[in-house]
């Protein structure tokens, strides 16, 4: 039985949250989001490993690594949502429940953001709820993982 741990993955440019286009992504920093995710996960007895990278291959590697010690994945693939078959395939390959998060409502933005390769693999998708979306994703996975 895999350990009770979630992998939290954040993709490119999300390291700049707090200062990056605050009118779109808000003022909350990635560190604050990661802390809150850990807090919410802890309520359900889950630990969190948080990874952020601006590199597609590093994100694929982090997803593969989850195979051995994680029970679910919360992922905001950021711009790679719209381009990366590799990340979608990595998620498919590990076979863990996946919750996809977008801070902004990608469906109300430019057309190229409307499609996410990851959504076809995700068990749930939340977009437009801001940082609260990450909490919703954790609560969804915690509920799913409850025997
Ligand atoms: C995002 C939306 C993506 O279109 C964008 O490229 C991001 C962040 C979001 O959280 O709203 O970097 O995933």
UniProtKB/TrEMBL annotation:
Pathway: Metabolic intermediate biosynthesis; chorismate biosynthesis; chorismate from D-erythrose 4-phosphate and phosphoenolpyruvate: step 3/7. Its EC number is 4.2.1.10. Keywords: Amino-acid biosynthesis, Aromatic amino acid biosynthesis, Lyase. The active site is at residues 25, 102. Belongs to the type-II 3-dehydroquinase family. NCBIfam families: aroQ, PRK05395.1-2, PRK05395.1-3, PRK05395.1-4. This is 3-dehydroquinate dehydratase. The record marks 20 as: Transition state stabilizer. It is an enzyme of class 4 (lyase). Pfam families: DHquinase_II (PF01220). Homododecamer. Catalyzes a trans-dehydration via an enolate intermediate. CDD domains: DHQase_II (cd00466). It catalyses: 3-dehydroquinate = 3-dehydroshikimate + H2O. HAMAP family: AroQ. It comes from the Bacteria. GO terms for biological process: amino acid biosynthetic process; aromatic amino acid family biosynthetic process; chorismate biosynthetic process; quinate catabolic process. The gene is aroQ. Transmembrane segments: none annotated. GO terms for molecular function: 3-dehydroquinate dehydratase activity. Substrate binds at residues 76, 82, 89, 103-104, 113.
């Amino acid at each position: 039985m895999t350990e009770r741990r979630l992998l939290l993955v954040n993709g490119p440019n999300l390291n700049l949250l707090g200062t990056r286009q605050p009118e779109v992504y808000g003022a909350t920093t990635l560190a604050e989001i990661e802390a809150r995710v850990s807090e919410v996960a802890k309520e359900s007895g889950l630990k969190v490993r948080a990874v952020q990278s601006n590199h597609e291959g590093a994100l694929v590697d982090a997803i593969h690594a989850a195979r051995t010690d994680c029970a679910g994945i919360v992922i905001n693939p950021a711009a790679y949502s719209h381009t990366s078959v590799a990340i979608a395939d990595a998620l498919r390959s590990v076979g863990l429940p996946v919750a996809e998060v977008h801070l902004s409502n990608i469906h109300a933005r430019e057309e190229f953001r409307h499609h996410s390769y990851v959504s076809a693999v995700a068990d749930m998708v939340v977009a437009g709820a801001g940082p609260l979306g990450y909490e919703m994703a954790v609560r969804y996975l915690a509920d799913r993982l409850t025997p």
